[in-house]
Amino acid sequence: MSQFRALAGILRGHSMRWLRGHTAGTGRSPSDPRRGCSSRAPEPSLMNCGSSYVEEMYYAWLEDPKNVHASWDVFFRNAQASAPSGEVPETHPSSLLQGRAISQTPALAQKVVEDHLAVHTLIRAYQIRGHHVAQLDPLGILDADLDCFVPSDLITSIDRLAFYGLLESDLDKTFQLPATTFIGGSDTTLPLREIIRRLEMSYCGHIGVEFMFINNVEQCQWIRQKFETPGTMRFTNEEMRTLLGRMVRSTRFEDFLARKWSSEKRFGLEGCEVLIPALKTIIDKSSEAGIDSVIMGMPHRGRLNVLANVVRKDLDQIFCQFDPKLEAADEGSGDVKYHLGMYHERINRVTDKNITLSLMANPSHLEAVDPVVQGKAKAEQFYRGDDKGNKVMSILIHGDAAFAGQGVVYETFHLSELPSYTTHGTIHVVVNNQIGFTTDPRVARSSLYPTDVARVVNAPIFHVNADDPEAVMYVCKVAAEWRSTFNKDVVIDLVCYRRFGHNEMDEPMFTQPLMYKQIRRQEHVLKKYSDKLINEGVVTLQEFEEEVAKYDKICEEAYTSSKDEKILHIRHWLDSPWPDFFTAEGEPKSMTCPPTGLEEETLQHIGHTASSVPVQDFTIHPGVWRILRGRAEMMQKRVADWALGEYMAFGSLLKDGIHVRLSGQDVERGTFSHRHHVLHDQEVDKRFCVPMNHLWVNQAPYTVCNSSLSEYGVLGFELGFAMASPNALVCWEAQFGDFHNTAQCIIDQFISPGQAKWVRNNGIVLMLPHGMEGMGPEHSSARPERFLQMSKDDSDRYPEFPGDFEVQQLFDCNWIVVNCSTPANYFHVLRRQILLPFRKPLIIFTPKSLLRHPDARSSFDDMTTGTRFRRIMAEEGPASTRPEVVKRVIFCTGKVYYELIKERKQKDLENDIAIIRLEQISPFPFDLVKAEVEKYHHAQLIWCQEEHKNMGYYDYIRPRFLTVLSNRRPIWYVGRDPAAAPATGNKVTHQAELKRFLNTAFNLQAFEGRSF
């Protein structure tokens, strides 16, 4: 009976066909929910098809073929046809029931089972591992998977048939095909020789497909159909002519740059010219599916070509970038030409539909742009109500070494399926140079392919030989269809080469001599493809030459026109314009900022919502009830703590139609359990309430979302989100302020210099919990010194501005750095961020212990109509009434203020010492500081901070104070001594340090006799 059990197993591969017949008339289909609905379940099969059942079916067929379903009849006839010679009588099957024939049935069945099992296993082996033997390297010298070993279960010679127990004579036998393959097309049976031939065509040619790790049957079947069905990879003459024209543009553009600027770096595309038609094909197919906005990100290789031939930037604007005499406009530092971005709306000539293309500017930190692109795409989808990604999509172009080596790629992939971060599928195109600068891939990655990181999100990976343009185009079509069908990521691995090394000035023969000897012999892909089409009669030689001459003429005319450009206008290279926000010249529509206070009625309304649950029959945690009751009590007293001040700022902006988005680790509750913007029902799983979205009728939406445990990727994402619209408050909060250091690349390369390099306005808000509270070196400092060092205001020049000093100074800075000490000032700075007539990044050092400090409360009087953000909080106690007798003025910022006023009160020095808080550190409030030091013109000046002397604010504020003082008076430092670590990990040491510098701050003789 074992042969029947084996036959039952092999029949599982045929179950889909069997079920189609045997479920007819039953009211059930193979996908009926009653058969199970888990995506992880095996395909519908004869799960209970035991050997006795198969035996009965077989004997019933032997008696009369009409006794079984037609599919079984076909199966048993094919099995009989493939049996060894002499084992099957030539008489009607029913005669086998008589006499000696019955004894031959087990041998026949066993051979049928073994052969069909072997063939089905063979088919699956090609589907799983065929890509390992695909002909992917255009140079023919490397294995794309870094492994020259051919899997032993793939048929590459007659000898390997033995691996499956098959003989050469079996090659001409016919086998029933399983439902998990489409190589037969309309045929359900094929000879083994033809099965192998079609499998090699599907999986071992110039395309290698990785997809069998995907745990979704429907998706796997979809991919099998696309690559296995005979005749699918065919192109019309018109499609081939279009492809050739695009190859001409891609190739001749690089040739033109090489002729005109042979000694310039341009990071050309030579060796992967197929990238241009590949991207255009993706855009064409996506446009057909309804996409009308595409946001792209890419490294420098090929960027100029993409700008010219995909985004369609004017060629003269590109060529003028090579002019060394081009003068910069007064718009910032600018950037090298192969880092610039672009935004362009045009007609897609294939679909005749409008499409907007945006290529994001990117620094040399190759993959840093990935999350930025995703964030901008998500924002556009959000504002357009495109909750399925049917209108807006993203394309990311990568280099192979960076794709495998840089962690932000992994972080970005892990955002792809998260509800608040998904862009509903990104098409990743890897320009696989098979080398990273001079580093061989064998020492650059541990994975077989550079694309293996994509497997973590079950993204299919299509490897393709970049010297086969038609194969590339087919893969691109399939990728675009995959994205529009399943709204999931997909990867195209263009296996190519670099014709001229890392850049045009580099000598690759130093390190890769054999590869570059082959590259020098390598025929250009345009020549190969044009010859092919000419030989096939698709185009004539004359037509091809005319196409080349036509594009060369376009380049020459643009080159002549480019010489008229005398000034570099970076504004022409904007990747995220805000046309309704600025004037036609790109300037703010005004240079004033109105007061940021609110009517008390509005404050009361927001406060009452913040202290209640606006949903019926909702059970919340007792601890949360206590917090809500505490808010209600504050409302009665007309005061706000930090969380309530934030609530009122956010809520008021929502009323005005400003979308507010708060993202970061644990932001919904708040790291320090103070926020609770999302309430969870304690009795019903996954039922939650966001009271902020119940404030007003027709309010803007509030998005608060816990992020993955990522800083680099998530901050880049939020930065991209903030680029999409100026009418949104986009905030990222670090779990602890010092955790921003793993996102330092985004801060250094995008946020701080973004406007100077790319004229890119951005109003993103970074909330960084900061304060020395004995929590150790990794939970104390948000490293304010780093942000202040990158602030561009001049420490040695007292600024003079016409009009509103505060607004003009903010307009001139690269970002704003604040350390608010009261909830009211926090409330105002958030509102000011939107009410300003321009956008600048805002860095807020937020508190930890002050979240619940009894003195860190603000009266509604500090938040009502007419009030605004206070850059400095002057002394308001007894010392301010008699400034002439004040002996010392202590300037400080943030939490240390509360420790200072407590110590001053204990020492009874409230008449002798004034304490002034700098709430806005950068740009430095020169005007207000000047007024304060002149008010206390006899007093000794102290800067007190809780951070170590080589950290914090001192190195930033000291030269600016001296500029205000015209170097006539000193300002002394009080705080912790210089150190390597930002804080001690010992509580006793922490308290001792605090006591020591507080004693110094109030020791009026501490600096007497010291020279300035």
Automatic annotation (TrEMBL):
Q: Which Enzyme Commission number(s) are on file for it?
A: 1.2.4.2
Domain Transketolase-like pyrimidine-binding, by residue range, is 640-853
Entry keyword annotation includes Mitochondrion: yes
- Spell out the InterPro entries in the cross-references: 2-oxogl_dehyd_N (IPR032106), 2oxoglutarate_DH_E1 (IPR011603), DH_E1 (IPR001017), KGD_C_sf (IPR042179), ODO-1/KGD_C (IPR031717), THDP-binding (IPR029061), Transketolase-like_Pyr-bd (IPR005475)
One BP annotation, GO: tricarboxylic acid cycle
| Compartment(s) where it occurs, according to its Swiss-Prot or TrEMBL record | Mitochondrion; Nucleus
Name assigned to this protein? 2-oxoglutarate dehydrogenase complex component E1
Q: What is the organism of origin for this protein?
A: Synaphobranchus kaupii
The upper taxonomy is:
Eukaryota, Metazoa, Chordata, Craniata, Vertebrata
